[in-house]
Amino acid sequence: MNSRNIETVLICDTTEEDSQVIAGLLSQQGYNVDICEERLEQELIPQQSIAPDCVIVDEGFIGRGNTELVRLVRDIDSDSFVIFLSSEYSDSLKMKINSLENALYLLKPVDAQTVASSLKEVESIWTSRRAGSVRAAVLDNEVEDMLCSLGFSIKLKGFSFLKECIYATLEKPELLGSISKKLYPCVGERLSAAPASVEKNIRASIAMAFREDGSGSLQSFVNSSRCPTNGAVIKALYNHFASGK
């Protein structure tokens, strides 16, 4: 699973009014939305150069069975998510769709807000998978060994906060662009701490590591002779693990 969030959405629904309402709300929430007004084969295949992150399709839109859409969408982009809309409840259909990777099932009538909430659920699923992938690729002992080699004391609270900063930024690199407003709250939420506490304890850990850095390993790591900022250390750690060094 790649690291993207949902940006582009393709709506395939034979009911134009429903499509317009859903598209309007999703557009207001920042999604780039296209609407298919023709049948699947004529409309989706030309979209290959701009493959959607998510496809919302009504069961009446295709005539060869709902699961056929999955195959066609996967041919365009194997990571695209599919949300199926069905006007009649079917246990077998729901089980079949829910058993597919990257697919959800919604029973019509469904309001636009429910569809929007489903997209958030999809993004949450992707985030969870990315987190699992990162945790599997970067082991705790590797992170701890790296921090200890730079002089960070495992006895200080900042140690665990720095560890979580590494995982959080590897899962969501965009957090590096707003460390105070986004990264600290993210780490604080994960470890049940206030953002200010995250910032303060990381700063204290860095100060101690720098003060006792007799070998100059931390200075070399951040390429600075001065005590580095929280941001400098976090970005250097991210670059180290992101590059697979």
Report what the structure shows:
This protein has 245 residues and is an alpha/beta fold. The protein has 2 domains: 8-134, Rossmann fold (3-Layer(aba) Sandwich); 138-242, Arc Repressor Mutant, subunit A, CATH 1.10.10.10. The protein contains 11 helices and 5 strands. The chain has helices spanning 16-28, 40-43, 67-76, 91-98, 112-137, 140-149, 157-171, 179-191, 195-211, 217-222, 230-242, and strands at 8-12, 32-36, 54-58, 81-86, 103-107. Strands 2-1-3-4-5 form a 5-stranded parallel β-sheet, with helices on both faces. Helix 7 packs across helix 9 and helix 7 (157-171) packs across helix 11. It is elongated and about 70 Å long. It starts with 7 loop residues before the first strand and ends with a helix.
Any key phrases for this structure?
alpha/beta; five-stranded parallel sheet
Element order: H for helix, E for strand: EHEHEHEHEHHHHHHH
* Count of the separate structural domains: 2
How far do the termini sit from each other? 21 Å
Kindly estimate the percentage of residues that lie in beta strands according to DSSP.
5-15%
Shape: elongated
| CATH H-tier superfamily of the largest domain | Response regulator
Strand order in space, largest sheet: 2-1-3-4-5
The gyration radius over C-alpha positions equals: 23 Å
In brief, what are we looking at here?
By secondary structure, the chain is of the alpha/beta class. The protein has helices spanning 16-28, 40-43, 67-76, 91-98, 112-137, 140-149, 157-171, 179-191, 195-211, 217-222, 230-242, and strands at residues 8-12, 32-36, 54-58, 81-86, 103-107.
